[in-house]
Design goal:
single chain; 49% strand; mainly beta; 269 residues; Jelly Rolls
């Protein structure tokens, strides 16, 4: 059954403008990697954490009862929550507006329903992207009565307010299964990616042990890499599951897997 008694989304007043307050959980470590690209590390252990029993969630940025003024987001990226939802539990119907919200399913399944008439069950590796626009209601829950569901839920601020709400999905092409970098979300939907209302390009990174991938950071943009599993070396840093790195410098970011690894890379205006 869905338990709404301790649901951070269940209040009818909940929206992107009513995020509550809690204490800070630490600061990033910032160093300079040769020759000049500055890399900031957001350790997994410094994230906010809330365990509601039916929902166990880690917050990369301030969210719900976790508040850290040093971590309110990164450019248009506002929320990265790593959620584990207990069997049969989930988020009852609740409102959103003026936010691009997507879920990347890691384990189990997620059932989505919204006021636009969409009803889907998403499986691991799939993405559902909802543009809340001028207002939408939706629910998300774990349809399994025996297995937990795990996902990343991510919010990105749109380039414009008051847009019509919309819904899209991205499903991996089997031919892309072993590609090191795959575009999954973009502002123009190129290469089969889901379309977002923001100048944001999001890549799924998937590396075998010893494999590397590079991405150019251009002037005026920022990169955020969120590691989901495995271990990554990047410009003298070592990332463990849940860690993140960011840079707003020009240059080439290179990620090397110390063991098989997966993550999401955000290229943001």
């Amino acid at each position: 059954m869905i338990d709404s008694t301790r649901n951070p989304y269940s209040s009818p007043q909940f929206s992107v403008s009513t995020i509550l307050i809690h204490r800070p959980q630490g600061n990033p470590q910032q160093t300079t990697s040769p020759p000049s690209m500055k890399i900031s590390i957001r350790p997994s252990t410094a994230r906010g954490h809330a365990n509601h029993g039916w929902l166990d969630s880690f917050h990369t940025f301030s969210f719900a009862n976790y508040y850290d003024p040093a971590h309110m987001g990164f450019r248009s990226l506002r929320v990265i929550n790593q959620d584990v939802i207990a069997p049969g539990a989930g988020f009852p119907t609740h409102p959103h507006h003026d936010m691009e919200i997507f879920s990347y399913i890691l384990h189990g399944a997620l059932e989505h329903q919204d006021s636009m008439g969409n009803g889907r069950v998403l499986k691991p590796g799939q993405i559902q992207l909802m543009s809340a626009g001028r207002g939408v209601h939706h629910s998300e829950f774990n349809p399994s009565q025996t297995e937990p569901a795990s996902l990343l839920q991510i919010w990105i601020q749109p380039a414009e307010r008051g847009l019509p709400p919309s819904y899209a999905e991205w499903h991996p092409d089997p031919a892309q299964e072993h590609e090191s970098k795959v575009l999954v979300i973009s502002p123009d939907g190129r290469h089969g990616s889901a379309t977002i209302h923001q100048d944001a390009n999001i890549h799924r990174i998937r590396l075998a042990a010893g494999q590397s991938v590079s991405h150019d950071a251009t002037r005026g943009r920022g990169l955020w890499f969120q590691l989901i599993n495995g271990h990554i070396a990047a410009h003298g840093h070592h990332l463990s599951p849940g860690d993140a790195l960011s840079t707003e410098d020009e240059g080439t970011l290179t990620l090397t897997a110390e063991e098989s690894a997966e993550g999401l890379l955000f290229d943001l205006k």
